[in-house]
C-alpha cells in the first residue's frame, strides 16, 4: 500500500506540475484506486464471484473563472499531459462562472489525522464463500416458513484516495469496507414475503456474525407474513432506525448548498431557526476511528471538524462546499462529498418503551417510492410495517401510504429511541412522530 500510495501521489503531483507549466494558476486533481471482491451464494451453490480493480484520475483547471475537466485511467506521463491539455482546451469554451475555483487556502486541512480506516481482509475467496454459505445455511434451517433464498453475499473492498491542488495541498488516505448480507423468502399458505439483513464495517472482524445476520433476516422475513391493509386514518407513526436515518437524510438534502442556492429547499433562510423540538440535537464528528463516514478531509481538501448541526432544536449550519459557500456569501463547512458521522440525541427509551409511549399507531419498517418534494417539504411514500395497539405489536401491515410535511414531521417528533443502528453513518434510534396521515382501505 505504501508503494502504491507514493505512485499515485507522484501521478497527482505530475499533473499539477504540467498544469503549472501550461500557465494554469488553479488546478485540482483527484485520483482514486479501488480493488476488491464480491461473492454470492444461493441455496448452497456459488452464484457469483466478481473481482474489481478500478481507478481513474480526474483533472480540473480554472482559467479566468472558466472550468475545464478531463480524466484518464492511464497514469503514464504522456497520458496525464494529454488529459491536462484537454482540460485546458475545454476551459476555453466553457462559460464564465464567478464562483468557480479552488477552495480558499484558509479552509484546507493542514494536519490530516490517521482515522484507522484501512483494514484489508486476509480471507481467501474460499473463506468468503464459506462465510456466505454459512449465513444462508443458518437462515434456511431456522424456520420452516423460510422456503427459499435470494442468496447471501460477502463484499470486501479497499480504496486509496489522493487529492491535490495548486494551493499546495496534496494528501491521501486508504480505506476499506466489508459487508455480509442475506435475502430470504418466507411462505405461509399462499402468501410469500421477502426481506433481508446485513452487516457493514471498515474491519472484517467488526462485522456481525453470520448467525446474527441470518437470524435477523429470518425474523424480519417471517414477521411480514399475514400482512394486511388498514383503514385510512390519522395516527402516530414510529419509524424504525433504518427508516429514521432516511428522514434525517431529507434534512441533509434540505441544508446542502446546491439545494439552497438553487432555492429548491423547504429550509431556505433557516439558520438559527427552530426546526425540531427543543430537546433534539444532532452532532457531527468526522474523526471517529473506523467510522463509516469518517474522513481526514473532504473531497476538495477541506478541513472537516466536529460541529453541532442542530442544537436544542435550532439549525446551526448549512452543509457547504467551497463553490456553494462563495455563491451564498458564506463560509465553507468541509462537506464536499457528504456528511461525516451524525449522532442524534435520544430520549432514553428503548423500542419497547417507544411502542408503549405511542400506544396505538403505525410502526414503519419499510418505505417505498420517492414522493418527497424538497421545495415545500411535502412527504408521501408507500410503507409497510406493523400496527400497534396498546403499546404492543398486533399484526403486520402493507400496501399503505403515509403522508405529511417534513416541517411538521420534524417539529412533531416526540421521542427518539436508544435502538441505534450502528451500520449507518447517520446514527439515530427509532423516531416517534405525533401524527401523520395514513392512506389504506
TrEMBL record:
Q: Which UniProt keywords apply?
A: Hydrolase, Metalloprotease, Protease
Domain (Metalloprotease TldD/E N-terminal): give its ranges.
27-91
Q: Where is the Metalloprotease TldD/E central domain?
A: 119-225
Q: What's the top EC group for this one?
A: hydrolase
Every Metalloprotease TldD/E C-terminal domain range: 233-440
Q: What is its EC number?
A: 3.4.24.-
Any idea which GO molecular function terms this record carries? metallopeptidase activity
Per the record's keyword annotation, is Cytoplasm included, yes or no? no
Domain of life assignment:
Bacteria
Q: Which NCBIfam families match?
A: PRK11040.1
Q: Which family does it belong to?
A: Belongs to the peptidase U62 family.
- Name the record gives this protein: Metalloprotease PmbA
The organism's lineage is:
Bacteria, Pseudomonadati, Pseudomonadota, Gammaproteobacteria, Alteromonadales
Q: Which gene encodes it?
A: pmbA
Amino acid at each position: 500500500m505504501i508503494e502504491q500510495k507514493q505512485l499515485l501521489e507522484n501521478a497527482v503531483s505530475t499533473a499539477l506540475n504540467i498544469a503549472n507549466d501550461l500557465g494554469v494558476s488553479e488546478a485540482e486533481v483527484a485520483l482514486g484506486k479501488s480493488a476488491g471482491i464480491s461473492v454470492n451464494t444461493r441455496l448452497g451453490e456459488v452464484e457469483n464471484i466478481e473481482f474489481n480493480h478500478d481507478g481513474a484520475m480526474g483533472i480540473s483547471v480554472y482559467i479566468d473563472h472558466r472550468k475545464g475537466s478531463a480524466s484518464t485511467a492511464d497514469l503514464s506521463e504522456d497520458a496525464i499531459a494529454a488529459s491536462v491539455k484537454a482540460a485546458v482546451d475545454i476551459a476555453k469554451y466553457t462559460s464564465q462562472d464567478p464562483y468557480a475555483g479552488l477552495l480558499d487556502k484558509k479552509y484546507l486541512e493542514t494536519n490530516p489525522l490517521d482515522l484507522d480506516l484501512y483494514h484489508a481482509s486476509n480471507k481467501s475467496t474460499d473463506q468468503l464463500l464459506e462465510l456466505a454459505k454459512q449465513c444462508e445455511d443458518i437462515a434456511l434451517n431456522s424456520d420452516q416458513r423460510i422456503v427459499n433464498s435470494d442468496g447471501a453475499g460477502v463484499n470486501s473492498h479497499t480504496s486509496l484516495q489522493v487529492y491535490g491542488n495548486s494551493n499546495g495541498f496534496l494528501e491521501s488516505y486508504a480505506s476499506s469496507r466489508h459487508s455480509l448480507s442475506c435475502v430470504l423468502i418466507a411462505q405461509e399458505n399462499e402468501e410469500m414475503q421477502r426481506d433481508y439483513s446485513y452487516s457493514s464495517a471498515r474491519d472484517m472482524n467488526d462485522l456481525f456474525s453470520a448467525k446474527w445476520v441470518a437470524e435477523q433476516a429470518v425474523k424480519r422475513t417471517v414477521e411480514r407474513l399475514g400482512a394486511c391493509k388498514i383503514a385510512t386514518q390519522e395516527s402516530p407513526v414510529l419509524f424504525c432506525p433504518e427508516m429514521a436515518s432516511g428522514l434525517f437524510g431529507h434534512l441533509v438534502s434540505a441544508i446542502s448548498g446546491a439545494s439552497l442556492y438553487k432555492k429548491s429547499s423547504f429550509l431556505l433562510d433557516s439558520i438559527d431557526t427552530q426546526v425540531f423540538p427543543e430537546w433534539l440535537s444532532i452532532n457531527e464528528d468526522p474523526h471517529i476511528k473506523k467510522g463509516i463516514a469518517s474522513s481526514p478531509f473532504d473531497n476538495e481538501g477541506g478541513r472537516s471538524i466536529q460541529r453541532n448541526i442542530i442544537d436544542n432544536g435550532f439549525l446551526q449550519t448549512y452543509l457547504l462546499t467551497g463553490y456553494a459557500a462563495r455563491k451564498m456569501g458564506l463560509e465553507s463547512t468541509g462537506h464536499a462529498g457528504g456528511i461525516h458521522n451524525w449522532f442524534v440525541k435520544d430520549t432514553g427509551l428503548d423500542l419497547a418503551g417507544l411502542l408503549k409511549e405511542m400506544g396505538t399507531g403505525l410502526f414503519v419498517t419499510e418505505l417505498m417510492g420517492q414522493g418527497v418534494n424538497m421545495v415545500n417539504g411535502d412527504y408521501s411514500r408507500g410503507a409497510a410495517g406493523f400496527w400497534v395497539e396498546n403499546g404492543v405489536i398486533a399484526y403486520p401491515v402493507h400496501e399503505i401510504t403515509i403522508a405529511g410535511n417534513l416541517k411538521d414531521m420534524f417539529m412533531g417528533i416526540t421521542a427518539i429511541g436508544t435502538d441505534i443502528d450502528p451500520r449507518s453513518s447517520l446514527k439515530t434510534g427509532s423516531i416517534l412522530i405525533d401524527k401523520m396521515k395514513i392512506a389504506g382501505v
